[in-house]
Amino acid sequence: MNRRIQAIPSSLTLTIAARAAAMREKGEDVVSLSAGEPDYDTPQPVKDAAIKAIREGQTKYTASAGMPSLRRAIAEKLLNDNGLTYDHTSVIVSVGAKQCLYNLIYCLLDEGDDALIPAPYWLSTPEMVKLAGGRPVFVPCPEEDGYPLKVDALRKAWTPKSRILVINSPCNPTGAVYSWDDLVEIGTFALEKDLCVISDEIYEKMVYDNKRHVSILNAVPELRDSCALVGGFSKTWAMTGWRVGYAAGPRAVIDACDRFQSHATSNTATPSQHAALAALAVDDEFTGRMVKEFDRRRRTCMDRIRKIPGLSAAEPHGAFYVMLRTDRLYGKSAGGKKVTDSLSFCERLLDMEKVAAVPGAAFGSDRHVRISYATGMGAIEKAFDRIERFVKGME
């Protein structure tokens, strides 16, 4: 086996998900707070566009980088929504935002290069860096301040081998939304150190508490030649299974991603591209309604957390996750078995109360458990009733 593959650990997320699925198959009433996808259905016009494309025979290969019409529409979206100007040749369409991130990391890192990654982090980012032959270097973002990425922490983490900085705002898993001032400092530091910035903006529409999403390219336009942004359709239009994402950046970088992608996967499924094109024409009412409901669920989660002794959480201002602080309970027993870390907490919670959550160790913080509120309010209330019972029963 390839040594890099051998070094990739099993996913803690999949471990819990597999156990929850097995319990459901036995008829057990499992409530999942682990989902990383909206519980809303894809808008009907998007589905209709894919069906129409299939019926009209639009089922052949497209260019590896995507249909020109979709790339132009994405460039137009970036101009209208984000104030960023790109020619469609500087946009690539991939099999989800995840492939865009991997394309960029693989194309920008060389063997032995360092990648700066704010922590807690999305669980796949460091593994992508390792697969590309790089070394992930984690930059701590303190919970006490709401998990911001500060330039002082970046300076401490930087090494002469640092080549890229991967940021994610709004952030999975913390819900942090980077401020304009923070992005100015981060971007200025990146320019100073000649870092390439990869900005994951997949949750750009999921913001609350009068916060607003800002791209680092808005805050520091001088990064234009050394920054690539990543977006997609999974969250904004509830299209997780359609697998369509995009990246925009310097033409040379996008061309490199296209060359790599042409040998890895070629084009995103053609009907999915037609669906994405239709999604860009859907008005904001769909996403606005979804985000309003996520906000209601977010506030419910925080209200319930505050009422359970031993648990706490920093207020998330974006995405649809809460990092639940659980380490104050480590050392206690649940059902006769000791809870020592985030994995054992999740295992005991699933075994005893049939609530599925994701160990924070998967995201670089064993002090936490990640829960998702991208599920129905009834499920959230039921889950917290069970979590409260679980915590109060610990000895």
Query: Count of helices?
Result: 14
Q: Which CATH first-tier class of the largest domain would you pick? A: Alpha Beta
Could you tell me how far the N terminus lies from the C terminus, measured between alpha carbons in angstroms?
Answer: 45 Å
**What's the oligomerization state?**
single chain
Helix content, binned percent? 40-55%
Principal-axes geometry comes out as: globular
Identify the CATH architecture of the largest domain: 3-Layer(aba) Sandwich
Query: What's the Cα radius of gyration?
Result: 21 Å
Q: Give the low-pLDDT segments.
A: none
Report the biggest beta sheet as strand number plus sense, adding barrel if it closes: 7 strands, mixed
Order of SSEs:
HHEHHEHEHEHEHEHEEHHHEEEHEEEH
Structural class: alpha/beta
CATH topology of the largest domain: Aspartate Aminotransferase, domain 2
Identify the notable features of this structure and list them briefly:
395 residues; alpha/beta; Aspartate Aminotransferase, domain 1; 14 helices
Can you describe this structure?
It is a single chain. The protein has 395 residues and is an alpha/beta fold. It has two domains: 3-41 and 285-392, Aspartate Aminotransferase, domain 1 (Alpha-Beta Complex), CATH 3.90.1150; 45-279, Type I PLP-dependent aspartate aminotransferase-like (Major domain) (Aspartate Aminotransferase, domain 2, 3-Layer(aba) Sandwich). Strands 2-8-7-6-5-3-4 form a seven-stranded mixed sheet, sandwiched between helices. The protein has a three-stranded antiparallel sheet with strand order 9-14-13. Strands 1-12 form a two-stranded parallel ribbon. Helices cover 42% and strands 15% of the residues. It starts with a helix and ends with a helix. Strand 5, helix 8 and strand 6 form a beta-alpha-beta unit.
